[in-house]
Amino acid sequence: MRWPRPRGLFQTTAFRMSMGYTLLVTLAVGVTLGTTYLLTQRILRDNVDLIITTELNSLQDQYVLRGTHGVTAEINVRIDSWGRIGSVYMLASPRFKRIAGNVTNWPFDGAPRERWPEFRIESIEPGQRSVHPVRAAVRQLSNGDWLLVGTDMSQDERYAQAFKTATLWGMGLSVLVAAIAGFAFSFRLSRRVGAVTETCVRIMSGERSRRLPVAGSRDEFDALAVSVNRVLDRLEEQSLTLRATFDSVAHDLRAPLQRLRGRMDAVLRLADLQPELREPVESALREVDRLQRTLATLLQIALAESGAPLAAVSRVNLSALVGELVELFEPVARERGLALTGHTDAGVFVEGNRQLLAQLISNLVENALKFVPAGGRIEIGLERHGALAHLAVSDNGPGVPAEQRRGAGEPFTRIGPRADAGGGLGLLLVGAIARLHHAVFALEDNEPGLRALIELPLAAPPD
Amino acid sequence: MHILLIEDDVEAAKFLIKGLRESGYVVDHAAGGREGLERSLAGKFDLIITDRMLPKIDGLEIIRQLRLAGLATPVLVLSALGSVDDRIRGLKAGGDDYLTKPFAFDELLARIEALLRRRTRASESTHLEVADLQFDLLTRRVTRSGREIDLTAREQKLLEFLMRRAGQVVTRMMLLEGVWDLHFDPQSNVVDVHISRLRQAVDRGSDRPLIHTVRGAGYVLREEP
Known about the structure:
Chain A is α+β, with helices and mostly antiparallel strands. Helices cover about 55% and strands about 20% of the residues of chain A.
């Protein structure tokens, strides 16, 4: 039997989860840094706007106090400090001709529509030409002149650029860290889950006393392992109790039969046994043998149906076993005027108990031997069908009606005429052995005749 | 031959002891595991027959203790359990043969004989000979009075089994176990049919048949009838 295992790290839930978290962390870092950037930008801009408004107000005051001349003078004073504070000023005529200020040409096409228009200005600083972004505000004085005050924004732009770079690096790094952490996490997780899976597989394949590893870290895995181990202890205990009960039942049924046999054997060995007594005792002995065979079958069915694990499991070469049984039964069939043949694929292996599988096949063959009239054919077939082995015993005998074929081999099902002479019990045992081997047992119409089909899970051939 | 029977079922033991004594064996009886173990360790028995389930010390434990003490006395296990793995457990523990209750007394006798003879049998030879029947195990050639007998591989195995135990009664169950490795009792007379085919090949046309039927027990291969 095969048990599912994740094929690689990428298939594990742990890995998928950690990938999801990495994405989430990246998103969170991005949003945080982006918001911070936008907020900072806004505060800086508000600051600039405040300065510009203050300057405009103070220049407008100069105009009110001292007229156009006052404004021009004030502008000229302030221009001197351009290098330091990075402000631009311009007083222009109503038709946007320069009257004063450190801007040569009116930067807009007429009056700007926005409240805070922005433009670029070329300036010649010692040694180099440079272009500066400027944020400005424009106000019309009462005589129709235009007053423009602006601030050099290159500082802010550099700051924004630096912030962008920092944000990208930050996001990149956090992705990297999250990915590494995720990898480590999923590796550790899949190792622990893998250990659990491995143990379960081993327990299912017969190492009943194995338990899940407890790391001693008292984490949720330990808690899980401890609980599962408790369940396993309980199951093992139950299976032992079941086994002990079964053993004592078997003992209590077989022991009296043994005493009965002992007595009868002793009678038969009597030197002065009257000849007319020999036949009835021998016939009674045959009945004891029949009873014993039925009992053995019943006990085996009971054990198989009790859920006790399959004992003495090995990799069985079913092809070879079928061949041997064909050879075993062929002379018997021939003696009864029947042709028994085998058609088997080579190298078909299953996981199971060789004795029980042999008994299963023997029961089906003997059932056919019993019911197929002389001149008939019996065929044992073994074929590979995908992951299954199809083991079929077919005959061209009288067959079994459809309503009696259903549920064959299941407890409390008896098959009409074939149920006599132990046939029904034999099929029950076939069903029980099939179930023990995780196989499906069905009776089919062989048109004409009966076809008993067992579908067993294939096992890999031994190395 | 001196046999120790360890069996707590006194009624069953009574018939076994009686039958074995009538068959010429000297039999000691231990009715419990502890007594059985003590007496088997004394080591003066040719064969020990022990029940599988005994109070206090069970049959398998007796075998383990016996083997631990370095005693190789053959042990035949009688068991009322008899599912497929019980047999394996019995043989793994060091038992030499395993018989499920209820069994025919003749079956027990045949197995006792086989175990006792096994002890004295010489090392594996490559040639078997009974009267004028010869079996060369290396070339797999079988001849009767010089005339070659053609046998299938399984028939050869069957003949080898009988020749190795020439003069001993072998039961159908022993043949199924030894020749076919089957440990259950088929309902049909498979063994009889195979024996009769072998008999056809080996004894046909001979006025001195070698394969004889022993009523109620099994078969024996020997010179005199």
